[in-house]
Amino acid sequence: MDYRTVGIFAHIDSGKTTLTERILFEAGKISAVGSIEDGTTESDTLREEIERGISIRTTFHSIQWKTKFGEFCLQIVDTPGHIDFKNQISDILPAIQIAVVILEGGSSVQSQARLVIEELRASQIPIVFFINKLDRFQDDYLDSLISLEEILGKAPEVLFEEDKENRGEWVYYLESQDSFPPSTHENLMKWSDELLLSQWSDPESNTKWNMIGLSRGTKDNSIFPVYGGSAKTGKGVRELLNLISWIGSKEKPSDASQYTLFRRVHPQYDRYAVIFSEKEIRIPYLLEDAKLKEGITQAFREEDGDWKEITEIPKGMLYYIQETKELDTTPGNYLSSSSSGKKKELGDIMSVSPFSITIEPESEADKPGWLKALGDLSWEDPGYHFQEDLDTGQIHLWGRGELHIEIGLRRIQENSQKKIQTGSINIARFERLKKMAHKVALEHHAFEDSKSSGTLIAVLEDTADFSKQVAFEVSLSEEVKNSIETAFFESTLHGFYGREVIGLRLVVLGFEFPGKDKEHLPSLLKVAIHSGMKDLFRENTVLVGPLTEIEVSVDTTQLGVVLSELNRRSAKIHSVDEERAGKSRLKAKASAENLLGFSGSLRNMTKGIGISWERTAFTSEFYAVLKE
Question: Is it the case that residue 50 has pLDDT exceeding 60?
Fold first, then answer.
């Protein structure tokens, strides 16, 4: 059996889950096609997914697919489309052997699809495009092709066309290999001199050089095939599966062989990880890394809802292992010896999860249960992080966005009768040093000026990132250096606006020691630095926070009220484009804290029709200035 791991990717509401459902039906895995609206699909099973009509978790389904050129096991991976869950897409890419990117007929390529295409190309994953909803838009997919060509930097290969005799029906070239138009036939080979020479040297051969070119060119990322149809009606879905099966999967050279796709919590088997195997292995299997040798002692596959233990794992197969302390199963990594001892620093959490909320159980006795639930949540989705404040008893939960946190809280409350109190969502705020290089001489006197810290000569300057650094250009004792470093980092915890200061470096140029009495030197030196830094921060820092790029699709009649709302939130409008079918699309930027609650407000303003897509980040290149 030839195993293929196929990722389904798209912008939100483009039809990923609908396509997955139709694939399961066409393969005979389910007897009826489920509905997103009714909450009866195989992929979206969480209450939050059903109520909101969006995918929150990555899921996979195995199907058997038989074609005239072979039989395959296609492992279909359905991914979330909302940007708050983007880490689940990035995490799975090394295990994806071929990608299907869904585009929506009647519109240009939307923002999340653009980001996914860029990531897939950077990872050199073969891509097949499927233009969906042609039951509604018929032959109206020119905008999709034009914007796709702009993204790819070359024209994609359209491998289908409308049947000239039966309008509304489609001809798929792969199904009838003699139907390839001459230009398409040539395009499938001209990317490779080797293929062209092979055809020219053997013109009478029955070899289908165009079919070989299609497979090799797609795997080489030289060709980007496009099919179209309707996931809802099933038009073109079987043909899409045949195309995927023909193209095959690209070999991935790697010393490692077992890769973590994602992690889940099973009601019966507890925590487990889904692993992708790049080569055939037998259980028990030894993993090797630089220092430790650990192994997989048990492996399972799912069969009719139950787990079946397996000892032989074919190349390309997805299988399950239960949680083990000996192995690191972090999504996005190759399986290796455990690194569970590493503690994530607060600054690391803030950079990827700038949104946070405070949680307080009603009673201390309830806390272990909530900590367990939060642990399971962050096990499944490493985009969540939590810490318990031992001083206040509160729990802080960080996430990637407003929706991400809201859904996380709802998920941990689903199966509990206990109540928790939550604060409002907080967004990271820091101070950043303005572009400056300021030379200072810091000194402090005490005990009626009889004691001195000595004089520290230094330059305070901004860095190119968010780091904090101390550099010494003079030789000093370890005691003095430690005093300077400790005082510097303590001083940066509270700047002019009372926030932590980031993005600065203290370069020590010299130090004039006080007289013979050095008994109080470390303490006095710290006071000198604290006082001097506080004065330097005054009017030399800006308050900064995460920045959000937002894209909004609304009916043109509602554009004015949406623009007014964004203006009220101090958003900077970058573009407003009118699309077909009376739709307008606008792009803007604003500080993340100004956009809190915008999605809900948009739904109310547009009676549920308006759609927003938001990308929030907080990096040294991408941030908002909140106050000068």
Answer: no
Question: Distance (Å, rounded) from C-alpha 278 to C-alpha 270?
Answer: 26
Counting Cα atoms < 13 Å in the Cβ hemisphere of 157 gives 31
**Amino acid (1-letter code) at residue 364:** E
Phi, psi dihedrals of residue 28, rounded to the nearest 5°: 80, 15
Q: What is the pLDDT of residue 209?
A: 83
Cα distance from N-terminal residue to C-terminal residue, the chain: 63
Alpha helices (H) in 53-169, listed in sequence order: 86-92, 111-122, 134-137, 142-152
Pair 360, 421: CB distance under 8 Å: yes
Q: What pLDDT shows up at residue 451?
A: 78
- Cα separation, 402 vs 592, in Å, equals 9
Q: What are the strands, taking DSSP E only, across 143-198?
A: 157-158, 160-162, 170-172
pLDDT at 74 over 90: yes
Residue 160 and residue 184: Cα distance in Å, rounded? 10
Q: Tell me which amino acid residue 72 is.
A: F
Please count the other Cβ atoms lying within 10 Å of the Cβ belonging to residue 209. Answer: 18
- Contact residues for 88 (Cβ-Cβ < 8 A; gap 6+): 57, 58, 79, 80, 262, 331, 381, 383
Mean pLDDT within 538-549: 90
Q: Quote the tokens at residue 164.
A: 């000239």
Query: What are all long-range contacts of 418-423, with beta carbons under 8 Å and residues at least 24 apart?
Result: 418/361, 418/362, 418/366, 418/369, 418/370, 419/362, 420/359, 420/360, 420/361, 420/362, 420/366, 420/370, 421/359, 421/360, 421/361, 421/362, 422/357, 422/358, 422/359, 422/360, 423/357, 423/358
pLDDT-wise least confident of 29-33, 119-123, 194-198:
29-33
DSSP state, residue 108: P
β-bridge partners, 302? 307
Question: For residue 123, what are the contacts with CB-CB under 8 A and spacing of at least 6?
Answer: 93, 94, 96
CA distance 377 to 415: 13
C-alpha 60/C-alpha 3 separation (Å) is: 13
Is the bond preceding residue 126 a cis peptide, omega within 30 degrees? no
The DSSP secondary structure of 478-513, one letter per residue, reads: HHHHHHHHHHHHHHTTS-TTSS-EESEEEEEEEEE-
pLDDT tens-place string over residues 12-24: 777 888 898 899 9
DSSP H helical ranges for 555-615 = 559-568, 598-605
CB contact at 8 A, 86 and 115: yes
What pTM was estimated for this model as a whole?
0.74
Residue 482 near residue 523, CB atoms below 8 Å: no
CA distance 115 to 135: 26
Rounded to whole angstroms, how far apart are CA atoms 86 and 541? 32
Query: Quick one: pLDDT at residue 40?
Result: 63
d(CA 374, CA 394): 13
CA separation, residue 477 to residues 78, 372, 511, 515, 521 (Å): 59, 47, 11, 16, 12
Residue 320 pLDDT greater than 90, yes or no: yes
Q: Taking a C-beta distance cutoff of 8 angstroms, is the pair 296, 260 a contact? A: no
Sign of CA dihedral 398, 403, 409, 411: negative
Q: pLDDT for 368-407, tens place per residue?
A: 888 999 999 989 888 888 988 888 888 999 988 888 888 8
Cα 487 to its chain centre, rounded Å, is 38
Residue 38: predicted pLDDT:
59
